[in-house]
Write a structure and sequence with these properties.
This protein is mainly beta and 683 residues long. The chain contains nine helices and 32 strands. The protein has a 24-stranded antiparallel beta barrel. It has a two-stranded parallel ribbon with strand order 1-2.
Length: 683
């Protein structure tokens, strides 16, 4: 009994502590933790703006724990499958929660997990009455947000060497950038409770022309209207949206947790169709989509039609251009050259302990895709239309979670992913995942667990374990072995590889945290400048120490790696960084600074390091060579409705180089300086 009382008192103190912190600060802290758990070299890096927007939504419209379901709780990415199941089972077995403090009595929810959960949930009546509203409320009670962002590099790049005073013919005939060096984006968002969302965005990348012969106005426009909770219709979206079905083998334009220190989250969490106001100019759909639910049945359907950038020399598609940049003659020539239509659907049936789904995606282009023949792309898709179908499942048997998906394309390429999670006790979780992606499986929107960005020509076995051996400890480890039966880009013959990770976290207090990570991997690669395939071994170690004292928090980070290619000698890389963050809810100015030193002998020793940024942005710069990097990131709340962010970052190389970058991005000197300004107005 005394132990339960102490647990509840601990939770009570955590609630009081969180009540004194701005919700946006808690959201930023949680997202920073999520990003740190991810492997920065991996492909599955979630869009910060999308993740932030979703979590902020739940701070404004918290989840009632007595009136929720598995799908809603899965939107809180930091909760594991077992934690969600234990929470729902506790309510099912013992009845509705009477207090938020009861969370500490649920198996698998530790102090750190509860701290993450509290900003997004509350305990209310189990059955809520449907809210009726008058149309006038859309005007009086809707929340508006307007964001203006501008980026600018300090040093002049080669692409901007053609000055405005030169005659127009000289500028247009050059291979330089056609526009000014400013990045500009404007975004507007409107939200009325959880019923209606509207978003608009406009963007111009640095180097793109705003007004002239090549372009008039912003380079990219987008937006959406989303209506929620119309009887059996969960949501309808008109405009820009993303889709994610099953485990991602048929449809996933979002992101999926792959290999990372979050070892048990290995596949995307199916979320159906959802709005997007991201500035990503490629990875989204544009059209109409809806999610519908009847008792245990759920359906998601959509239709998208939009123009893509592509190289269409000769009347067919050589390659699709995904950067969204239109700065030079060559880039403008690829702009909006292809029409793409996509129709997708997912039908899902749920029972309490299992679910099964069926997914379909049909893609049609107005011109055929014919890839340039190479050693590794003989089985790549070619033609004008593609159909992919798949079925996914999930089944819980006591403490076992079985899941998987199998998909097939019209070219008879197939892929399958199957796994099992086992929780023998709440403090221990294990996962095993098998995957096989045939060489002919080349689906446009497939994204799931894999070693490379393409779900093709790969098979492997993954094993992960996470344990909480003591109140303050969390241990995570994984092992993954894989093979490519046929040549791949950069590997001219069939090859194999493996990687291992071990991470330990020690959190004696909410204000102190120590994280240590070891990683070792071996994969095959072409030896530089030859067709010879050799092994590439890389070992790395990382240690981070977090400490908070009052309004100041400190993070000290150290990392080192060794790499060896074939019979070459070992090469070395390291980085040392110190972060200091200041936040005071009673003072309008907050921010953080970092000073970082680094060295990388070769590209194989490169360093990735996540850093804070302005709202709706993130940075994971890649560091090679030798030098130092620092940044200052400030936030100032002028009024309750007006907030400014300003970031200045600079990298200074100390390895004797006289230029930074290459091609049009080349800058004279040994440094690179960037400024970023964001203004947010809420009304």
């Amino acid at each position: 009994m005394m132990g339960k009382v102490l647990y509840i008192l601990t939770a009570l103190l955590m609630v009081f502590q969180l009540a004194a912190q701005p919700q946006s600060d808690e959201v930023e802290r949680i997202i920073n933790d999520i990003y740190y758990q991810l492997d920065e070299e991996g492909k599955d890096i979630p869009e910060y703006e999308q993740l932030y927007e979703e979590l902020v939504h739940y701070t404004q419209q918290p989840i009632n724990l007595n009136h929720t379901n598995r799908q809603e709780l899965q939107q809180l990415y930091f909760l594991s499958d077992l934690q969600i199941e234990n929470l729902l089972y506790h309510i099912y077995q013992y009845g509705p929660l009477e207090s938020i403090y009861e969370l500490r009595l649920i198996d698998g929810l530790e102090d750190y997990d509860i701290r993450n959960l509290l900003p997004f949930v509350y305990v209310g009546e189990q059955q809520e009455q449907k809210e009726l509203f008058h149309p006038k409320e859309l005007y009086y009670y809707g929340k508006h947000q307007l964001l203006l962002r501008m980026d600018k590099g300090l040093e002049t790049q080669e692409g901007y060497r053609f000055l405005p005073e030169e005659d127009e013919a000289t500028i247009n005939s050059s291979e330089g950038y056609k526009g000014d060096p400013f990045y500009v984006s404007i975004r507007y968002q409107y939200a009325f409770k959880d019923k209606l969302n509207i978003g608009l965005r406009m963007e111009k990348d640095a180097g793109e022309q705003f007004w002239g012969d090549y372009n008039k106005g912003f380079d990219s426009y987008g937006g959406y209207v989303q209506i929620n909770k119309l009887k059996w219709c969960k949501r309808i979206i008109i405009g820009d949206f993303k889709a994610n079905f099953g485990n991602g083998l048929v449809m996933n334009t979002d992101f999926g947790f792959g290999k990372s220190a979050d070892v048990l989250n290995t596949t995307p969490r199916s979320q159906g169709i959802r709005k997007t106001n991201s500035t990503d100019e490629y990875n989204f759909f544009r059209g109409v989509g809806g999610s519908f639910q009847w008792n245990r049945w759920e359906a998601n359907v959509f239709y998208s039609i939009r123009r893509l950038d592509a190289d269409t020399t000769g009347g067919y598609i050589h390659s699709i251009y995904t950067t969204g940049l239109h700065r030079t003659d060559n880039e403008y020539a690829k702009r909006n050259t292809v029409w793409q239509q996509v129709m997708g659907a997912n039908l899902l049936y749920r029972q309490r302990s299992w679910k099964v789904g069926l997914s379909m995606a049909a893609t049609l282009f107005n011109k055929p895709i014919i890839p340039q023949p190479t050693l590794y792309n003989t089985d790549y898709f070619s033609g004008k239309h593609q159909l992919t179908v798949g079925t996914d499942y999930q089944w819980r048997i006591k403490r076992f979670f079985l899941f998987g998906e199998t998909a097939l394309t019209q070219q008879l390429g197939w892929a399958t992913l199957n796994g099992v999670k086992f929780y023998p006790i709440p403090e221990l979780g294990l996962v095993t995942l098998q995957r096989y992606y045939s060489g002919k499986f080349d689906s446009f929107f497939a994204q799931s667990f894999s070693e490379t960005s393409a779900l093709s020509n790969e098979k492997g076995i993954y094993i992960g374990i996470e344990a909480i051996p003591g109140r303050f400890w969390r241990i995570a480890a994984y092992a993954d072995t894989y093979s490519f039966p046929f040549p791949k880009y950069g590997i001219n013959k069939p090859s194999t590889g493996f990687d291992y990770l071990l991470q330990a976290e020690y959190t004696p207090k909410t204000t102190i945290k120590l994280v240590s990570r070891l990683k070792w991997e071996e994969k095959m690669t072409n030896y530089t400048g030859t067709q010879l395939v050799v092994p590439l071994d890389k070992a790395s170690a990382r240690c981070q120490f977090f400490y908070q004292s009052g309004h100041l928090s400190f993070k000290t980070s150290m990392e080192g790696n060794l790499a060896k290619k074939g019979s070459d000698d070992f090469t070395f890389g390291y980085q040392l960084a110190q972060d200091i963050t200041y936040r005071n809810e009673n003072f309008p100015l907050s921010g953080n600074i970092r000073l970082q030193m680094f060295h990388a002998d070769t590209y194989d020793n490169r360093i990735y390091s996540y850093e804070n940024d302005v709202l709706y942005a993130f940075s994971i710069p890649m560091l090679t060579g030798s030098g130092c990097r620092y940044y200052i990131n400030l936030r100032y709340d002028l009024f309750q409705t007006l907030t400014l962010w300003l970031k200045m970052s600079q990298i200074i190389y100390a390895d004797g180089r006289e230029t930074v970058g290459s091609g049009h991005e080349e800058r004279s000197g040994n440094r690179k300086t960037d400024f970023r300004l964001l203004i947010r107005y809420k009304f």
